[in-house]
Amino acid sequence: MHTSPFADWDGTAQQARVLQSTLAERVVLEDDFVSPRVIAGVDVGFEEQGGVTLAAAVLLDADTLQLIAHSVARIPTSMPYVPGLLSFRELPALLQALRDLPQIPDLIYCDGLGIAHPRRLGIASHLGVVTGLPTIGVAKSILVGTHAELPQEKGARVPLRHAGEQVGWMLRSKDKVKPLIVSPGHRVSMATAVELVLACCRGYRLPEPTRLADRLASRRGEMPAPQAGPPDLFG
Predict the structure, then answer these.
(1) Is the distance from CB of 93 to CB of 54 less than 8 angstroms?
(2) CA dihedral angle for residue 140, residue 144, residue 146, residue 151, rounded to 10 degrees
(3) Contact, 103 vs 62, CB < 8 A?
(4) What is the pLDDT along the chain (235 residues), one digit of tens a residue?
C-alpha cells in the first residue's frame, strides 16, 4: 500500500469529496512504468441486496493475455451508493482481492473511471494513488464530459472533454458496439491509455482484463483454466 485509501475520512460524503480533490493532486498523467509482464483486471459487484461487496481481480500474462490467477474478496458493504463516490464504497474489497493475487501486477485495468470524473479521481485514479501502481479506467458509461460523433469501426476514438480539458477517450473497441470510456488512472498518459486498452481487445467489447474480472464478479460462466505465469527473468 502506497498510502491510506481514505486518510482521515470521517465517513461523510462532504469530506469524501474534499479528500478526492486532495488525492487528485497526486495523480500522475505521464507514462511511468516498465513494459508490463503481468497485468490485472478488477471489477466489483454486490450480493445480498447490496449488503456484501464482492471484488474480483484477475492476473494475466501481458503478452498472451492468458489467465494466470484470480481472486475474489467479499466484505460487508460499508457505504451506500453515492454518485461520484464509488471508490469509497468499493475500494476496501478491491484492495483485498488484489492482495490475494500471487503477484503484484505491473499495470491494472479497472472497470470504472480514471480522471473522467468531476474531481478527477474515479476509482482507477484512487486505486492508483493509494497503491502506487499504474492504472487505467475502462468504463461503460459517462459520468462527465461531452464528445464528438464516433465512427462505427473498431479502433475509432474521439476525445472526451469536461470543463475545457480532455479527461479521456470514447473508444470503439469492436465494430458497431457501444463505445468504452477510457481514461488514465495513474502513471499512464492519455495517449498511451487508449492504445493499451485497444491492444487487449480480442473480439469482445471489453478488453480481456476487465472482461474476465466482470465475468468473475458477476459469476457469469466458467473462468478459463489458469496458465503458467511469464518466465522468471532471474530463474
Answers:
(1) yes
(2) -10
(3) no
(4) 565 677 678 888 999 999 999 999 999 999 999 999 999 999 999 999 889 999 999 999 999 999 999 999 999 998 888 999 999 999 999 999 999 999 999 999 999 999 999 999 999 999 999 999 999 999 999 999 999 999 999 999 999 999 999 999 999 999 999 999 999 999 999 999 999 999 999 999 999 999 999 999 987 667 788 876 554 433 3
Give which of 47, 7, 35 is closest to 23, Cα–Cα.
Answer: 7
Grid cell 467479499 — which residue? 74
Three-class secondary structure of residue 189 per DSSP: coil
Which residue's C-alpha cell is 505465469?
Answer: 229
Asked if 122 contacts 185 with a C-beta cutoff of 8 angstroms, the reply is yes
CA-CA distance, 183 to 170, in Å (whole number)?
Answer: 9
Strand partners, 69: 59
What are the cell numbers at 224?
478459463
DSSP letter at 99 equals H
Q: Domains in the chain and their CATH numbers?
A: 39-218 (3.30.2170.10)
- Tell whether pTM > 0.90: yes
The set of cell numbers assigned to 120 is 478527477
